Every structure is written in C-alpha cells, then in structure tokens.
Amino acid sequence: MASDRDILPDTVKPSHYSISLYDLELGGEWSYQGTVAIDLEIKKSTKEIVLNSLQLKIHSAELKTENTKTEQNFKASDITYDAHKQRVTLAFGEEPPATSKATLVVKFQGTMNNLMAGFYRSRYKPTGSVAKSVPQVDDFHYMFSTQFESCDARRAFPCFDEPNLKATFDVDLEIPKDQVALSNMPEKKKKETKEGWHVVSFERTPIMSTYLLAWAVGDFEYVEDRTDRKYNGARIPVRVYTTRGLRHQGQFALENAKKIVDLFSDIFKIDYPLPKVDLIAVHEFSHGAMENWGLITYRTTAVLFDEAESAQGYKNRVAYVVAHELAHQWFGNLVTMDWWNELWLNEGFATWVGWYAIDRLYPEWNVWGQFVSEGVQSAFQLDSLRTSHPIEVPVKDALEVDQIFDAISYLKGSSVIRMLSAHLTDKVFLAGVTDYLNAHKYGNATTNDLWSALSRASGQDVNHFMDLWIRKIGFPVLTVAEEPGQISVKQERFLLTGDVKPEEDETTWWLPLGLTTGAPGQEIKKHSVKALTAKTETIRGVDDNYYKLNANQNGFYRTNYPPARLVKLGELKAKLSVEDKVGLIGDAYALGVSGYAKTTGFLALIERFGDETDYLVWSQITGNLVNIQSVFSDVGDVHKGLKKFALKLLTPAAEKVGWEAKKGETYLQGQLRVLLIGAAAAAGHEGIIKESLRRFELASSGKDPKAIPPSLRGAVFRTAVTEGGRAAYEALVKEYTTTTSIDGKEICLQSLGRVQTPELAQEFLTFLFSSSVAVQDKHSGAIALANNANVRYELWKYIRENWDQTVFPLLSGNMVVLERFLRAGLAKFASFEVAEEIREFFKDKDQRGYDRGLAVVNDTILGQATYRKRDEEVIREWLKANGYLE
C-alpha cells in the first residue's frame, strides 16, 4: 500500500456492479432503497470485506462464492461503519476462500440529498406545464441527478470508490412513468412495477471508474442532432437534455458538441467509444460540469444559451465547457489517472485540448489570447504563493482530493502542456497523446506513461525537461540584463512576497526562451538559442533595437526586463501579438506587486496602451489596475490618484466604442464594449454613469424593458447599485427574484455586491444566505463583496459572527462549496491585522476539507499587505510627478 494514500484493503477486486434503485420517496425524507450485486475476485482469503459507504444504511450483505465448482453463501454477521474514513466493514462469521468467482449482494437505503454530491435533488422553478409526479415544495419543483467525482459514488451505493478499481455497470432505476431516466448508456428496456411506475434498465457500461457512473431522473425534454462522422457504420445521436420548457436554449451547446465529438475522434485517432452522447443541464450544481461517460452534467449557465436574452460572454463559456468535458471522454474516462495525485492528467489536458478545439471552431475568438489572460495569469497567482502545491501532489483521502480541483491542477497543468506542445509542435504532441491513449485505453495510467509516449513520438527525452515542472512547486522569473549586442538571463523562483530563501530556489527549470529579435524595418526572427537549462546564461547576437523573450507567452514564467526596455516594448507594441501584450502587462504588474520591480513600471507601460483596440489586452490592463486600486483602497490620496489615472486611460477607448453595437461587429468587439463601459463607469466617467442610470431606470420601472442590451446588464447593474443606493439595490433584488434569463441570477448577484454602505452589505448578506439564493451561487455574492473595498470587511464580519449558526451548517455539507466560498471571499484584504484575525478565528476549528483554502487566503493577504507597505510612497510620488495628484 502506497504510504501517501489511505486506500481500501487489496483483499478483493471488483469487476462488475448490478445496481437497482427502487421505492424512491419523492418528498418527505427523500429516501430510496437499493440493491447492488458486485462481482468480485477474492484475492486473499479474509473474514472481512471493506467498502466505501457514506450516509447509507446497510440492511444486509451476503457473499456468494464459487471455488472448484463448490458454491457457498456467507451472510455478514456484523456491519460496522467508519464515518471518518467513509467506509463500511462487512464481517463474515467464517472465512470465504480466495476465488475469482464471487458476488457480494448488499441491500441498503440512501437519501436523495440536497448537497450537490452523490445522488441528489435540485430545485427549480418550471417553465410551463410539469409532469404530475414531479415533486413540489412551495414554488419549487425537483429533478434528480448524480455527482460522484471525486469520491461521492459512495454516497449513492456501497462501492469500491477508487479510480483504479474499474468495473462495468448495469443500472436499473424505478421511476414514475411520466418522468425520464437517463444513465451513461442507452436504455435497454422498461418493465412495469407498481401502478404508475416502471423500472428503466440500461445497457452495460464499458469498464470504468466509479466516479464516472451517472444517472438522472426528471421531467426532461431534449434537442437532438447526430455526428457527421459514422461510428461502426452509424452516426451517433447527440442530445442536450433540460427540464421542460428550456430545451431551445440547448441548441448552441448541441451544435458545438456534435462537431467536437468528431474533431476529437479525428485528432486522437480513436473513435468516440459509446453509442450516445448526452449533455444535461442540472439546476443545482457544485462545479461547472462533470464528464460522466456518455451522460455529461452541467451547471445551467455552462450549457444553456439564449441568443436573444443571454450575455454574449456566456457563449464563449458554453462552447469551452462543452469541449472540456467532451475531451474527458477520452482523457480521463477511456484512460484514467491511477490515483488522485495525478488529477492534473485529467484536468490539465482537458483544459488545453478544450481550448484547442474552440480555437479550431472559432478562430476569430483568439482563445489562446484569452487563455494567457485568464488561465495563465490565474495559475501564476496561486503558484506564486508558498502555500501552492506541485501539479502532481500527494493525496491521502477523499477530503484532500476536492481541494486540488484548483488553478494548479487545471491551469498550471494546461499551461505546461501548452508550453510542451509549442516546443514539440501540436502535431507531434497529439501523436504522442494518441499513442498514450491506445496503450492504456480502458485502464489507468500515470504521468510517466504520458511522458514516455511523448518521448517516443518526438524522439526527445520529455521526462527530462518536464519532470520538475510537474513535481516541484512554483515557477521562475527570468531577469534580463543588457549589454551591447547581448543579454544575460537569470532564473530564480518567483514569489508574490518577493522574499525567496536560498532553500526555496534550488530548482533549475527547463525554460523555452522563445527569443525574437530584429532591427528597424527588418523581419523579426527567432533566435537560435532555444531553451535555458541553467540558472544563468549570456545570449549573443541580440539586436538592441528590438528583442522579446517568451514569444506568444508559451513558456510558464515571468520576465523581468530593465525599466527602459519595458518602456521601449510599450512603444513598439505594434510588433507584439495579443498574447505578448497580455504577458508583458501581466508580468509588469506582478513584478511590481512582488517587489522584483516597481509598480511605476507597470503604470508607465499601460499609459502607452490608451489607443489599444483589443478586448483581451484591455481585460489584462483593467484587471491588474483594479487589483492595485483594491490594495490601496483606503490610502485616500493614492486611491484618488489611481482612479484619476484610470479615468484618463479609459476615457478615449470607452467613448470610441460607444453604447451601440456596430453592424458586422465581432464577438471580441462586443466584449470590449462591455468591459470598457463597466470599467469607465467604475473610474468615474460621468457621461457613462449617467447613461447607465438612465437605462437602468427605464428597464427597472418597466417603461422600456429592452433599454439594457443583454450583454450590458452586468456593467449597468453594477453602476446602478454603486451609484443608486437603496432604491437601485431593491430594484435589483426584485430583478433577481423575477428574471427568467438563464444567466440573470448570476449577473444580479455579481452586481448586488457593489453596495456602498455597511447596512446594505449586511442586508445583502442576509439575502445571500437565505433560501432565495441557491447554495451553488452563494460564492458569486462573496466574490462581488470581496472585490468591493468599501464593504469587504462586512463579509468577513458576517462570516465570523454567523459561522456556527449559518455559514458552516449551510455550506459544509459539500466541502467544495465551503472552501470555494472562503477562498473567494477572504483573499482580497491587504492587511496584516485582518490576516491575524482570520488565523485566530479558525485556529481551533476542524479545518479538514478547507485548510488548503485558508492557507492560500493567508498567504495572499500577507503578500498584498507587504506590497502595500513597500510601494505606497513610490506610487504616490509617480502619481504626483505625472499630474494625477496635487
């Protein structure tokens, strides 16, 4: 048994499950009865069988064995539970023999809980008529679905709930006849039971991990299409399921899904292996989506889109999340990581190849620029903390798993894959992936298995230059020194606090340099030096007129140029790709925050971007500038000067883009309008504020419900709540409760957090923690309040004062939800005192399941507090010297 894992005994190994669920109580206690028959190999003779079980009641257990043609039955004489380890031990009076033929039959009772984990129920308000048997409580109706990743199949049925204990599954569900049942495989047959009910049986699944099993029951309808390619002579049906009345909003996801299944079948050179592809919108969902094989579940805003009512930004989200989950059908489902420490194999690859697919479908979206702006920068943020973790991180048990579904596993993982693919070329990289998938299909694999396949495909020792990226924490900053005709580069670990100790800087990363250089009027060329494999190196043949490291930001590192070079690159920005601009701005900001450089370098750089026209570049500029304003929010003169600087920078671009969409406008141009109108209003642009309030009044009063274009709701709502006080707040609460737009509630919560007084903040928090707001959405309100310097302390105050009676009881049923809420809600402070308050409050509490999130919060706050203390006077002097302060 691996020392870093708390896993089940290896005395038995499952090969097949027959699961039958019946007597579903649709209301009241929400209970159900179940029988599971598990075909086993008994590898070692034992009197006990240990399975995973959580919040289940085991009625009975019987073991049937066949050994040398002798059949025996053994009934469990004792059933004991270990709630901490989420296990049940079945003790038999005598010792069954080792045999390859055994079946364990367990009868049990479970609950369709409201925790968004296991087999659970989701509330929703229906659109139109509803099937008679659908349960209703107050204004809400209910659907039922599963969420088993990472370790919650054990909440639904007793099982061997570890990723490398793969098996096949038969599923039978007894449901009301007027509802629909779905599972991973197509329906096989129906059989009537009691009046109004029947059992729906499904075809047997391929061999797979327990966390990929799924089923759903509800008043469902669907839109359908078929793949263009044929699989075993037939085109595969692709469907998007919704509760009744919403199916038309699944059309965009459907159009993408059918194309992406074919695309991945082509690029992986392995046909999609199941006979159907179902996507289903789930009304309450803790994650964004889940890749259950053949029945992919989604949060509604990640799969539904209404061209007339949805904000256009959600179109990008839906397309990407559909692609990400479909990528898992191969990378994760067909081939599964051996243990949760290699979660990144699933998530890092699915993130990269998901964006790869969307780039193929929508090249005009420039998704790699988006990836550098959002994905890479988010990965940098978490990985610049001492409390980060390696991409491949030891995982002991179930509660540890959920906390590593984070920016390291997803975004650093995908960033280093992008770096590797750019080095090998996408063609060679994908050839290696195909080799990997073929070698391990229907089985489990490790990171080293992937490196071996890529090494064979490329003829390079991939493990040699990638191993440290996976197993070591952090990333480097590359500091550049100039001499005539040459540069010297030095790599060292980057930390947000800028105080790296020698023992923290012992890793020498393989860094693809991506160095380009050129003289005025000449073509920019790639330099012959490909990679840095030492701590320092001098590179000759570099033209002083222009050079840039890390072309297109393919490498996962920051670059620290001399201040004069940074200014020059800003002047020569026309030579840079969008990715290069985003990276240059992001690096300058982070180097200022961490103390490797000064924030004044960042401010001087972005001053040169006032005429920029690209949405992704502006997104990076405004995001970084808002963070600086947040840190200095209560330093009166500095905050005032930064706001004046932001207003001057944003005004020409915001006025140029205007309020009305132009004919033939691209998706990115539309997103630029949304960004600039919101940012300019926040910076104090009087004209835009006035127009926002005018439109809000027209829409909220009912005089002109279409006064605010769908994509501009967020910008206008935020401005209205910021400027409009209680009247605007109450109008937006009403909008939240009445909106039928699929993204409407999310947009309202993000805007309500812009309240400006402690009284309204506390009122909003009371509303946020009421039953009016679904548990899955409570973090959206927390993020908005945390980003609002005027009231963020009210959020911490509420958490502290209501922890025992409200916050912990409501959120801790699903630790993913609690950890996300705390990490999102508390990490924006820049105060040593608040960091101490948070540490003191939580020090005596059982932090299992959210300890990693609290550590990230502490590190982040300390880094921001250190930055504030160090750079306050420098920024003040720069603002004075440049006319933004008197």
Automatic annotation (TrEMBL):
Q: Which residues form the Aminopeptidase N-like N-terminal domain?
A: 13-212
Query: What are the ERAP1-like C-terminal domain coordinates in residue numbering?
Result: 547-861
Q: Where does Zn(2+) bind?
A: H324, H328, E347
Peptidase M1 membrane alanine aminopeptidase domain: from which residue to which, for each copy? 252-469
Q: Where is the active site?
A: E325
User: EC number(s) for this protein?
Assistant: 3.4.11.-
Q: What is the name of the protein in this document?
A: Aminopeptidase
State a single Gene Ontology molecular function: peptide binding
GO cellular component annotations of the record: cytoplasm; membrane
